[in-house]
Amino acid sequence: MGNTASGHLNWPGLIEAYRSYLPVSDSTPVVTLQEGNTPLIPAPAIAKRIGRGVRVLVKYDGLNPTGSFKDRGMTMAISKAKEAGAKAVICASTGNTSASAAAYARRGGMRAFVLIPDGYVALGKLAQALLYGAEVLAIQGNFDQALGIVREMASNYPVTLVNSVNPYRLEGQKTAAFELVDSLGDAPDWLCIPVGNAGNITAYWMGFCQYHQDRKCDRLPVMMGFQAAGASPLVTGEVVTHPETIATAIRIGNPASWEKAIAVQQASQGKFNSVTDAEILEAYRLLASEEGIFCEPASAASVAGLLKVKDQVPTGATVVCVLTGNGLKDPDTAIQHSNNQFKQGIEPTISAVATAMGLNE
Ligand code: F0G
User: Fold this and answer.
1) Ligand 1 contact, 257 CB (< 6 A)
2) What pLDDT, on the 0 to 100 scale, is given for residue 3?
3) Which helix (H) or strand (E) holds 47?
4) What is the rounded CA–CA span in Å between residue 190 and residue 188?
């Protein structure tokens, strides 16, 4: 795949890298921004809080071209839409899907229509969708309602649906599991992952199972899905009509891949758990201030969840937490929930600065 001796200098994007595992042919016009091949970073400060020789790593998918894991699915969905002759795509989104759909659709020469819940999309994501050239329609409703509308639209109008109910999305996203096995030499013991619409947990499991069948890994991970407490239908077993959480990316009350996610949980002997907004914010700050890794709040749910159930982690296990999106997506939450180290209005003198630093006391 064009690698050099020093590694992945010529990483070709995930369709080329994993072509034999993906439903593409020589005539598929590949629309790529060289997504994938994201870092798997050790997280010693988190591991230390668990102890017992547990190894923790984070899959930092916030380093994809538009800053989230959605690019893995979108390179596939948009390439296949282009192959089928689509002129326009549509999606509902809590933000990341809209940014990714916009970037890939525009690069592929298509129009991108995105429906978002008005007032509940993080600033960076909205900025991206607009600048990439999406036609952004903010509805006075939540994600679940937006998804219902775009599903109808796609069956009645000449627009291709690129939410994760489009099977090509999951095909692309499963490559993250391939990358984990390629890096670790086997699947991790546990995979901790934030769950909203439940596409990604489904896609990871597909990837692990395919690699397992191909004998690329000996084991399959226990899949641990984490939802925000105010939007945790897979934990309670009931649709949430008015989902609420600071982690707006996973503010979803009726996941489209509900049954698939339950099947994954059962087959992997995993569990769904919920984490409160306070726990999410604590993990969010911990990741940034002790590991140097800035993810968005929804992504921190995987680490918050791991810490919540840390006593259940087998001794000596290898655990991977998926960090689905970049922290820069949501600057408002970062500024509002930092640790109050921000001192403003300081006089521009050495003594005032020294005093503010606590050096003059
Ligand atoms: N993390 C982030 C940062 C997300 O944006 C999403 C979903 C998830 C986790 C959950 O993934 O839906 O596959 O279970 N975001 C979608 C969007 C809903 O519109 O951007 P999932």
Assistant:
1) no
2) 47
3) helix 44-50
4) 5
Residue located nearest, by CA, to atom 3 of ligand 1: 325
Helices (H), 167-314: 167-173, 175-184, 199-213, 233-236, 258-268, 277-286, 297-308
Q: Which atom of ligand 1 is nearest to the CA of 97?
A: 20
Nearest CA to ligand 1 atom 7: 249
Blockwise average pLDDT, block size 10, the chain, 361 residues: 55 98 98 98 98 98 98 98 98 98 98 98 98 98 98 98 98 98 98 98 98 98 99 98 98 98 98 98 98 98 99 98 98 92 94 94 68
The DSSP element (H or E) to which 236 belongs, if any, is helix 233-236
Task: Tell me whether strands 55-60 and 88-92 are parallel, antiparallel or unpaired.
Answer: unpaired
CA atoms within 13 A on the CB side of 176: 34
Site of tokens 């397992």: 212
250 lines ligand 1 (CB under 6 A): yes
Nearest CA to ligand 1 atom 15: 249
176 Cβ inside 6 Å of ligand 1: no
Q: Is the pTM of this model over 0.85?
A: yes
Residues 77 and 172: beta-carbon distance below 8 Å: yes
Residue 292's CB is within 10 A of a number of other CB atoms, namely 10
pLDDT at 360 (0 to 100): 82
pLDDT at residue number 9:
67
Residue 298: CB within 6 Å of ligand 1?
Answer: yes
Q: What is the three-class DSSP state of 344?
A: coil
Sheet holding 88-92, edge to edge: 135-139, 111-117, 88-92, 160-161
Distance CA 202, CA 13 (A): 21
Shortest-distance atom of ligand 1 to CA 197: 12
Cβ atoms of 274 and 309 within 8 Å: the answer is no
Q: How far is the CA of 200 from the centre of ligand 1 (A)?
A: 8
Distance 35 CA to ligand 1 centre (A): 17
Model pLDDT, residue 5: 54
